[in-house]
Amino acid sequence: MKLIEPIVREADALAALRRDLHAHPELCYEELRTSELIANTLEQWGIEVHRGLGKTGVVGVVRGHSAPERLLGLRADIDALPMTEVNRFAHASRHAGKMHACGHDGHTAMLLAAAQHLAASRDFAGTVVLVFQPAEEGGGGARAMIEDGLLQRFPVEAMFGIHNWPGLAEGQFAVSPGPVFASSNEFKITVHGKGAHGAMPHLGVDPVLAACHMVLGFQSIVSRNLRPIDTGVISVTMVQAGEATNVIPDHCELQGTVRAFRPEVLDLLESRMRQLADSTATAFGARCDFHFHRNYPPTINHARETAFVQAALSDWLGPQQVLPFEPTMGAEDFSYYLQQVPGCYFLIGNGEGQHRHAGHGLGPCMLHNPSYDFNDALIPLGGSMWVELVQRWFAQPR
């Protein structure tokens, strides 16, 4: 591995920019300050900028020395999470209830590092489309940018994206073809019974009892309806009912999430949940309203583009630094790009948390944890990696 010297020289400035973003987190579709900072920075480097795709998204366009008709997309997400940071170092969040707990500030900094060098050198034969995307954390910002014409205005040959991964060693990457992130889906079930005095349950219909049987029954769907070689998760995460200890309420509400890698598996999970909810409610003399909302589709890497990333990283770093990407039941809206164009989404190791400065929280440095912080040592590594992939991509035939 050889880091690009101009990127290394700018590492401190880019780390300062990353920490500024960390200190000023913005939630999905509210990334006004973040977008303006990104756009202004790109323009200072002489990069063509397009604002407002997906409401607060920014696109930078860098043309190489030739073949401008060939386009390659690189994506970084820019939004934060609605949670309170417990770190107390200087760049901790200044906004209660908002935190860069997933490293999108670092993803942005790595792509900016590459953008600065690509714009200064233009040492590639093609056009790089830098996608700074809002609203990954539940807002479907990728879908919004696509609906605003991203892929029509910039018809890329392929799209690549990366996520930092705590627990994976600094300097290591993980990449695999096929499904790597699951689909994300939500359900809400309202069980309607008949309220009564808690001491006289025979005069009512207890929706809580029916709801509890539903929760247990849902777990049998995964264990008894899915093939053992398929993967699915049904998690009831919210149960809400009642206002007094001596009152059987007239309704009970269940909410939760369902995850799967394959559409046919998700179809089965939804169908069986609906059947089980309806029949269980009927069995207890109640009725239910069942609502199922499909959010992000599964993230499925394309074989050719994944093989390209694996080969490029192995050649650059050594094969021992490029590990298989063990699929996760988390979700990622990069999936929307991969439904439209070939591409690959992969991981860069964020380490175990030793990079955190004094004043960090006592919890582990895991994603979506209030003690998390991005590892700034990844900025020159990730920036150099993007440049390496760009140059290798355009060096091969279309």
UniProtKB/TrEMBL annotation:
The lineage of its organism: Bacteria, Pseudomonadati, Pseudomonadota, Betaproteobacteria, Burkholderiales. It comes from the Bacteria. This is M20 aminoacylase family protein. Keywords: Hydrolase. Residues 186-279 form the Peptidase M20 dimerisation domain. Transmembrane segments: none annotated. Pfam families: M20_dimer (PF07687), Peptidase_M20 (PF01546).
